[in-house]
Amino acid sequence: MTTGQSILSPETMVDEFKKSGVTHIITIPNSETNYLYELMVKEPSFTVVPVAREGETMAIAAGVLIGGKTPVCLIQNTGMFESGDSIRGIALDVGMPIVMVIGYRGYDRHNDTVDSAAYYTEPILHTWGIKFYLVETDEDGPRISKAFAEARRTSRPVAILVGDEFHGFNRPGGGGGG
Amino acid sequence: MMSLHDAVTVLKEHRGDAVVVTCMSAGGAWNRVSDRPERDLPIRPMGKGMNVAFGLALARPDLKVLMLDGDGSLLMNLGTLTSVATQKPENFYHFVMENGVYAITGGQPIPSKDVASFAGFARDAGYAAAYEFDDLEDLSMNIGKVLQEKGPVLINLKVEPVIQNLPPGLRPPARRSWITALREVEAHLNGK
Q1: Is A142 inside a domain boundary?
Q2: Which among B57, B82, B185 has CB closest to A52?
Q3: Which has more confidence, A5 or A136?
Q4: A87 touches chain B (CB under 8 A)
Q5: Model confidence at B170, in pLDDT bands (50, 70, 90)?
């Protein structure tokens, strides 16, 4: 789909991770991040850690932080729901500066939300008191570095909601119209 | 079958400079024998200790990381065996204290009791090696050699359950909270 609208490119995400000193990316791939995954694997400064279930990501990230490195959890909002007790028991109770990059499945700025995954995402983050940044286009890229700085400053988890499910994160020229 | 106390006492003799991450019953037993609390990391959320230990092993390949897990705890998070096996952390040693029950909630049987093999799970998930010990002398004689192997290695220890029947509010408090311990270990490892 060619719309001429600004999109979020995966290269922006990789550049922002590098600026923030990310060393380990703990992830379950989802439909909006397949090309991003390929870029991350090619980047020598990243260790990509695929896991079997999203709840693993926060606890692995905690271990990486205790070891003095910088992790990021890359999951979908459905995975955030699955991770509830890890977010509570590890990230919030301990005060871990874990940045969670969350694919905002179902979100559409210009249309009604028809997917319950999108419907529950922000209310749950509000309930946990987790600050979040919405990232939809390349122009929003600096919010990613801001989220890492916020997590470090507050010793709390911070979320980045990737609100461009259908455009920027698919392979270039690969029919990335969702 | 070994007593949990005897088994962790043997492990203490072989830990060297390893960071020891614990979860559930193993934590209490370990705390009573360890003399290096600055390198002991108790993780309270059930099933998550192995993830924290795995993350630490990835971040710090210069350290040996021993995970002392419970069998019920591992069952909550079996998929992590495949996550670990994929990354192949050579410094990761995953002990499972198999007592067949949920000891801290009164001793109810775990679902896999007398059915599943934890060493088998690890082997089939792709760990470099997996062992099982049910005899203290055998453990004492061989664990030093196992800890010289390249990880990830799972070591299943058949131990007698230490059942908790006191309600949580009546149990003696820990010497330090797990969050305090975590902060102290983090500071120690990073020279803060």
Answers
A1: no
A2: B82
A3: A136
A4: no
A5: confident
Residues B1 and B160: beta-carbon distance below 8 Å: yes
- Phi and psi at residue B151, to the nearest 5°: -80, 180
pLDDT of A26 reads: 98
What are the pLDDT digits (tens) for A35-47? 888 899 999 999 9
- Give the pLDDT band (50/70/90) at residue B7: very high
* A-interface mutation test, from B21, B24, B50, B52, most A Cβ less than 10 A away: B52
Residue span of the structural domain in which A23 resides: 11-133+157-162
C-alpha–C-alpha distance, residues A68 and A57, integer Å: 17
Class of the B4-189 domain?
alpha beta
Name the token pair of A157. 């988890």
The band of B25, judged by pLDDT with boundaries at 50, 70 and 90, is confident
Beta-carbon neighbour count of residue B71 at 10 Å? Answer: 26
A95 interaction partners in chain B (CB closer than 8 Å): 179
Contact flag A56-B77 (C-beta cutoff 8 Å): yes
